[in-house]
Amino acid sequence: MLNPSRWTNAGLTLTALLITLVTFGSEAAIADQHTNAESPEPIESTEMPQGLIILESPYSVEETATRLQTLLGNNGITVFAEIDHAAGAAGVDLTLLPTQVIIFGNPLVGTPLMQCSQSVAIDLPQKALIWQDDVGQVYLGYNDPRYLAERHNLVDCEEAIARVEGALGRIGQAAVGPDVIEAAPPE
Questions:
Q1: How many C-beta neighbours within 10 Å does residue 97 have?
Q2: What is the Cα–Cα distance from 171 to 129, expressed in whole angstroms?
Q3: According to DSSP H, which parts of 32-182 are helical?
Q4: What ranges make up the beta strands (E) of the chain?
Q5: What's the number of CA atoms in the CB half-sphere (13 Å) around residue 162?
Q6: CA 176 to CA 140: how far, in whole Å?
Q7: 142-148 long-range CB contacts below 8 Å, 24 or more apart?
Q8: What are the backbone angles phi and psi of residue 142, rounded to the nearest 5°?
Q9: What does the alpha-carbon distance between residue 26 and residue 145 come to, in Å, rounded to a whole number?
Q10: pLDDT digits (tens, 9 = 90+) for 3-16
Q11: Overall average pLDDT of the 88-104 stretch
Q12: Which 3 state secondary structure label does DSSP give 14?
């Protein structure tokens, strides 16, 4: 059996292709997320890539990734793979600042997007990028569901887009927020 946690840069494309039928989001993510009034606002800059929502994180890349994965798990969202691009670079004697991609999803919310347009499957499951820049600032970024809707011409799909947008927003804000995050107890 393949171990997705060991896949590197070269396997990212294969990873995305192998799991495009699985989608993202969770009804539970919408239901019970605590948000802080001082939550970070998404960064808006002409220097940032188009179609990404980017939040500054006060935590390291590793801690931000751990917080995000815990929140995803607490909300019934499956984490399919964690790709450590810096480790992949080190494996071929190159250097890269800390950079991780987390691939996650749940078909309850993503499937309705594909029912609107199957081409959106190329962008599913959802991915989160966590990276550190050259001055030490850490960021959490993910695809803007509105951008994906435009890219794939998702018509009559507003409810599904809004559900994904709300869940990702709440989980992203919590991952970079000040609250302590603990794994939910096993059921």
A1: 14
A2: 14
A3: 61-74, 85-90, 107-116, 145-151, 158-176
A4: 52-57, 78-84, 99-105, 126-132, 138-143
A5: 5
A6: 8
A7: 142/52, 142/53, 142/168, 142/172, 143/51, 143/52, 143/53, 144/51, 144/52, 144/53, 147/50, 147/51, 147/52, 148/51, 148/113, 148/120, 148/123
A8: -150, 160
A9: 14
A10: 444 333 334 333 33
A11: 98
A12: helix
Do residues 75 and 175 lie in contact, with contact meaning Cβ atoms separated by under 8 Å? no
Which residue, chain included where needed, has tokens 């507003």? 158
76: its two tokens: 């019934």
Q: Which residue has the higher pLDDT, 71 or 19?
A: 71
Instruction: Name the residue with tokens 């396997």.
Output: 11
Query: Using only C-alpha atoms, what is the Rg of the chain?
Result: 16
| pLDDT above 50: residue 30 | no
Q: Which residue has the tokens 């987390």?
A: 102
Instruction: Note if the pTM is more than 0.85.
Output: no
